[in-house]
Amino acid sequence: MNWHPVVKIFCALALLTALAGCKEQQVAVGAPAPALAAFDLNGRPAALGQWRGKPVYLTFWSSDCGGCALEMKLLQKLSDAYGDRLVVVAVNTDPQQTDITAFLGALHIRYPVVRDQLGITRERYQVVGTPTSYLLSAGGTVLEAYQGVRGEPALTAMFRDAQQDKS
To answer: Rounded to an integer, what distance in angstroms lies between the CA atom of residue 115 and that of residue 57?
Structure first.
């Protein structure tokens, strides 16, 4: 389908307006997690609700972040070990034109990856650098926030504790 450029612009502005109207959501430990304004790698909208009932480790990353690559590899190991008892979701903050396929392939990432191409999710979660991570309870409450790379002992302990929390 070949749409007129004015129709394309109108649709894009309508989408941006709808998403921008939700920008006032901000992250706070102990509060419900802000909604994602992100898309999966197939271009479909992503929502935290698709993982409701399981703790979620939400990590913001960029392809030019060496610490992110180290942590993402460790997160894949933990994701494999914990199976579906805890979900790792990686939120990419690179611009849309950045191809992240090779980066993800080199690390053998199999957990969900979403893209925050408009920067709205990054703003809601107050991300100023990568990696920045949040642990969400199975009920969708923000349990913990952390900026920087976490080591294997800390992440392993957090994953173990998170799956026992029923809030």
So the answer is: 16
One-letter amino acid for residue 1 of the chain: M
Q: CB within 8 A of 124, min separation 6: which ones?
A: 23, 25, 26, 27, 34, 35, 37
Asked if 55 and 136 touch (Cβ cutoff 8 Å), the reply is yes
DSSP-based three-state secondary structure for 106: helix
**Does residue 113 contact residue 40 with C-beta atoms inside 8 Å?**
yes
pLDDT at 24: 61
| 28 three-class SS | coil
**Cα–Cα distance between 124 and 38 in angstroms, integer?**
12
pLDDT in tens, 75-94: 999 999 998 899 999 999 99
**Residues 6 or more apart whose Cβ sits within 8 Å of residue 53:** 138
Which value, in Å, is the radius of gyration of the alpha carbons in the chain?
A: 16
